[in-house]
Amino acid sequence: MTAALITANTGYLLLAVLPPIFWLLFYLHEDRHPEPKRLLLVAFLGGMAAAGLAVLIEVLILGQNGGLSLETSTVGDALVAFFIIAFIEEYVKYLPVKFLIEKRRDFNEPVDAMIYMITAGLGFAALENALFLLPVLHQNVSLGFDIATNRFLGANLLHALSSGIVGFFLARAWFHPHRKHFVALGIIIASLLHALFNTLILMREDITQGTWYVVLLLGIMAMMVFIDFQRLKGKTKTTA
């Protein structure tokens, strides 16, 4: 009984953690100068802690249902509530990098800002996966796998991309001190895109080709992050 329970819980943990790690390895492949593994782990665990903080703040501000009623909510209501949620999540994902990474001597290239922000974002996604999956998997393993797959292609990728966008603006702010307001701008832009994603997910059944709008949005964000990576590669502190 104990062995079976441990095996099952290990499987649930892997379903929650492996998808974000896959995306993390994908983005790390873009880094010409790999970051210290210990700092990547710090950023990832910091992102997981940020997810717990985000849940607490969201419940305190919006309540258990995030301020939405599926029966009475309009698109406008969803956008406002989702922007608040997205802003909270994008901001708290930035905190591990701000307090645990920025002052380290290994944070020495503009592209590092994107790498560490994406790492923190995927740590956030890992804990969020667990919060979504654990209540479901004990009741319906097949549904749990479906949720894990959908989150891998949706929410996990969203967190990586939105954090990557914040990371680009962080790079511009950190390596050009007179651009400190860029971090706030990056968080706002990422929050708007994040809120739009959540709204499209909620309303996709009521919008013609709704799923394709979600795919298009993620594609645009992926292109933004790819271009940002290319812009920062090879840049130094003085040329960022």
The count of helical stretches stands at: 8
The helix fraction, in percent, is: over 70%
Q: Radius of gyration over alpha carbons? A: 18 Å
Number of strands: 0
Report, as a whole number of angstroms, the end-to-end distance. Answer: 57 Å
Q: What is the residue-averaged pLDDT?
A: 82
Description:
Helix 1 runs antiparallel to helix 4 (110-137). The model is unreliable at 1-9 (pLDDT under 50). It is globular and about 45 Å long. By secondary structure, it is mainly alpha-helical. 78% of the residues lie in helices and 0% in strands. It has one domain (2-232). The chain has helices spanning 2-28, 37-62, 75-101, 110-137, 141-153, 155-174, 181-203, 210-232. The chain starts with a helix and ends in an 8-residue tail after the last helix. The protein contains eight helices and no strands. The longest helix is centred in the middle third of the chain and has 28 residues, at 110-137.
In short:
This protein has 240 residues and is mainly alpha-helical. It contains 8 helices and no strands.
